[in-house]
Design a protein that fits this description.
By secondary structure, this protein is mainly β. Helix content is 0%, strand content 32%. It has a nine-stranded mixed β-sheet, with no helix packed on it.
Length: 191
């Protein structure tokens, strides 16, 4: 295997790109970036200085991944999703600090979603298209709206899950498509 880099892409010589990764048209990858194996970095993506991206990640067209964002393995980032890294941005600020954001294993970020810095998106969580995430997202959570809110849960394949027991201390969920089962011991408020 090898790395494919489109001739129009600009990849800094210090960037580490894993085997089997595809980097498409007009991508810019900055200094000291690490991108894992078997990733797809689509047209017009910008990856800032020092960003870490895991294996088998798919980043769709028009996404900017700024310094401070860390993406674990098997994450999907939809077209034109937006990340921030400054909690109090000003054009002339010289003393601003990067606020880190983390996308955990297997989560999905929908098209045009905005992820405000300082949050953790839990494993296998799904952020709907256009959602604005301002707080941490639990594992397997389905988040929609602006600001985003918890509206349900999804299985590892991304199917919406249904509750299979009465509301008790332990919530039991199952996927009607693939049969995956989850149980939660915490109190979960779905509105």
């Amino acid at each position: 295997m090898s790395v494919f880099i489109h001739p129009s892409a600009e990849v800094h010589k210090s960037a580490e790109i894993g085997d089997g990764t595809y980097i498409w048209n007009n991508v810019q990858i900055r200094e000291n970036t690490k991108i894992g194996k078997n990733c797809i970095i689509s047209k017009g993506v910008y990856i800032d200085i020092g960003v870490k991206i895991g294996n088998s990640v798919k980043i769709q067209n028009g996404v900017s991944v700024y310094a401070g964002v860390e993406i674990e393995d098997e994450v999907f980032v939809g077209p034109n999703a937006t990340f921030t890294n400054d909690m109090y941005p000003r054009a002339t600020a010289r003393d601003w600090k990067i606020v880190p954001t983390k996308l955990r294993f297997g989560c999905s970020i929908g098209a045009n979603a905005t992820i405000v810095c300082g949050v953790v998106i839990g494993p296998f969580a799904m952020v709907a298209a256009g959602a604005v995430v301002t707080n941490n997202v639990p594992p397997f959570a389905l988040m929609t709206g602006n600001p985003s809110r918890l509206v349900g849960f999804v299985c590892k394949k991304g199917h919406p899950m249904i509750q299979t027991n009465a509301m008790e201390e332990q919530m039991q969920m199952s996927c009607p498509v693939c049969g995956e089962k989850l149980s939660f011991t915490a109190v979960v408020d779905i509105k």
